[in-house]
């Protein structure tokens, strides 16, 4: 049996998650995490900006690949990464330090397995997938070139995000923030240098952006490993002689696989919408793909709060402090709605301020502006659903968030198809996307408020009933 850590040995970071004031603690931990997620999102935006200089076909090609890249990013960082951070936080909250150390090796092995699976699936199935999404001619060729380069190094992406999740699970948000931010700064000159060719570097075109991205993840993985092996790390992982145990794999996979289903649903919804938009031509794909990048940018921003929330909720659940876990969740939800709704309204009012960063094609601008004006004002519901998904990761209860995301997928896909069938055009497709976001946010909010973490959901959950569920 794993030996518990005495109370006196409780790390200050763990103590802050269990005892510190909720809002200031979330904001303090969230600040570097917002930075790390913003820097990570900026990596894709930097690359897209320079690839946009190669023309509309190149931009459309990247737009076709982007949902698949984000699927990998969100599964490795948000889904499986959330499972890793949650498992480590719950172990530390329960003062099972040996288990927390052993979880690092289990997390790395999971990341290697998923990375190889992604590489094989996309390299073999990419041509058919991008063709179904509307890729034709030059835009399809650009998509395949970019995709093959990125997914040849899929293992690097998975390892980087797994190690960052390990560190975040201890309540340390600063180290992943520093590593990611430094990498993003280095990517600013590296990406155009490889795309256009500077000095002795050859002009690789769209493939140069992919190569630069993989170099970023490779260097970041080395830096995170170096930190975990240093004396500053709370964890003391060992790589040899550690027995592999199914309960530790299950602690990660139980949350991670449920999160992966939710992530797949999110990205399939985007991919289906891309395919529906593809019926209106390459410029429409480029416009939708560029506009929907703003929605993807919301994911890392909300994860800025979601990462600390996973750690705080997981640590509190592990320590038996259920009421504090729920209070922290609603504080985080309020902050997430404020951030995402502000961005959405601004995008709806001034869509060209975003779109012109990437291209000036009139048809592209028209399609992108239509999307932002239709869906942008509803981004607050997306932020609400997403932050409650992260909190549910910390609690180890993802059934209802998965159901909410599947409902989103159904409404976005079926609604978009019906819009085209009934001659609703692009506006109808985008309206279905907006309604899907509303449903996603409300399902997660009602079920969390109804006590889904602590038993069967009841509507409405009276304070007395909810307090009964909070009692261990």
UniProtKB/TrEMBL annotation:
Q: Where in the cell is it found?
A: Cell inner membrane
The answer to whether UniProt assigns keyword Transmembrane to this entry is: yes
UniProt keyword Iron-sulfur, yes or no: no
Keywords tagged on the record: Cell membrane, Membrane, Transmembrane, Transmembrane helix, Transport
Q: Which Pfam families match?
A: MatE (PF01554)
Classify the main location: membrane
Q: Which InterPro entries match?
A: MATE_fam, MdtK-like, Membrane_Transporter-Flippase
What parts of the sequence cross the membrane? 34-52, 58-88, 100-124, 144-167, 174-198, 204-228, 248-277, 297-318, 330-350, 370-391, 398-420, 426-446
- Highest taxon of the source? Bacteria
Bilayer topology term: Multi-pass membrane protein
PANTHER family in the record, alphabetically? MULTIDRUG RESISTANCE PROTEIN YPNP-RELATED
State the protein's name: MATE family efflux transporter
* Organism whose genome encodes this protein: Aquincola tertiaricarbonis
